[in-house]
Design a protein that fits this description.
Length: 343
């Protein structure tokens, strides 16, 4: 069942005609992964670009991808794997803006575990959110890179929250294979891990904003304006992370940690910054850009694991064609707005 949260554009003049634009998220509830979109709305960047944006939530990236591919949403905020899985069933479109600077899937063990590397996982159980999770595909490839032949019985579905930690603490599993937002949430709750990354594709962005071929053909201008608002929001976040955090808590009050305001801010900032590309030092003109050679390496891994069989190239999956137009912004007033936020 879809849940929707209208992100109404701020500070509109009556004369401004705002174009409706739907973003389809792949999770069932608000979370820090969508911080850039929340800031773009609350800081008025969508309104500046003539867009009235609605973000919808749903249970899983597969459904989100299908909704965007069928033009039930203008764009989806998802990862590559569901699209590649659905390619043989007719899904068509491209990823037009990268939201990551690394693979979002990796392995985790307790910080005091005897497991130091992937090679130590021979004969161990690994917890996954579900047996259909893309994190399991990446984990299998990671194990192969360490000389281990993975089988399905090495994996156990444990969910993503307290259930996963209970399985890890109780010894049902010795490692977890989840993703960045989950690990960030678990660290916010006080859990500490040692992480094990894929040695070949750990630094590959495997997701971002996806649009159908029809959307790219008919609404390229709206897509460019949406991405330009995203660029503005990223500049804002980097300039004033605490203001971005307050915006996130406004959208999702339940995410504010317990304790004093000082403690909550420290914990919240750590969560939104956890493994996030929003805080790296890329120049503005590089925001959202894909490295096609790295994407190809990841596609080769997925093909070897049976995710798809077609002869696809990275240029069939991603494009940087909209990046130049999206990056045409003046950072100075954006940074000033960020510095003065809430004053």
């Amino acid at each position: 069942m879809l849940a929707g949260l209208s992100l109404m554009a701020a500070a509109l003049s009556p004369a401004q005609a705002q174009e409706s634009f739907v973003v389809q998220g792949g999770s069932p509830v608000p979370n820090p992964a969508y911080l850039n979109t929340y800031v773009a709305q609350k800081a008025g960047f969508f309104a500046e670009e003539g867009l009235e944006v609605e973000i919808r939530y749903t249970q899983g990236a597969a459904l989100a991808t299908q909704l965007a591919a069928s033009n039930s949403a203008d764009i989806a905020d998802v990862t590559f794997e569901p699209y590649l899985l659905g390619y043989s069933k007719g899904l068509r479109g491209k990823f037009i803006y990268s939201r990551y600077d690394q693979l979002i899937y990796w392995l985790a063990v307790p910080v005091d575990s005897d497991i130091k590397s992937a090679g130590d996982l021979a004969g161990k159980k690994i917890g996954v959110a579900s047996m259909a999770s893309s994190s399991m595909t990446v984990a299998k490839s990671l194990l192969r890179s360490a000389g281990i032949d993975p089988t399905n019985d090495m994996f156990l579905p444990v969910g993503t929250g307290d259930q996963a930690m209970a399985a890890l603490a109780g010894g049902q599993v010795q490692a977890l294979s989840l993703w960045d937002a989950v690990y960030g949430s678990l660290e916010r709750a006080g859990h500490k891990f040692r992480y094990i990354y894929h040695p070949e594709v750990g630094d590959v962005s495997n997701g971002g904003f996806f649009a159908s071929d029809q959307e790219l053909s008919e609404k390229a201008d709206a897509l460019q304006r949406f991405l330009r608002a995203q660029v503005k929001a990223r500049i804002f976040i980097k300039e004033n992370p605490e203001a971005a955090l307050q915006i996130y808590w406004e959208v999702n009050p339940a995410a504010k940690p317990q304790g004093t305001q000082e403690q909550a801010v420290a914990t919240g900032l750590a969560e939104i910054a956890f493994k996030s590309a929003l805080f790296n030092d890329d120049p503005v003109e590089k925001f959202g850009q894909y490295d096609l050679s790295k994407v190809q390496s990841y596609m080769d891994v997925l093909k070897a694991e049976g995710v798809f069989t077609e002869d696809l190239k990275s240029s069939d999956l991603v494009t940087n064609d909209l990046i130049a137009a999206a990056s045409r912004v003046d950072p100075v007033p954006i940074r000033e707005k960020a510095r003065n936020w809430g004053k």
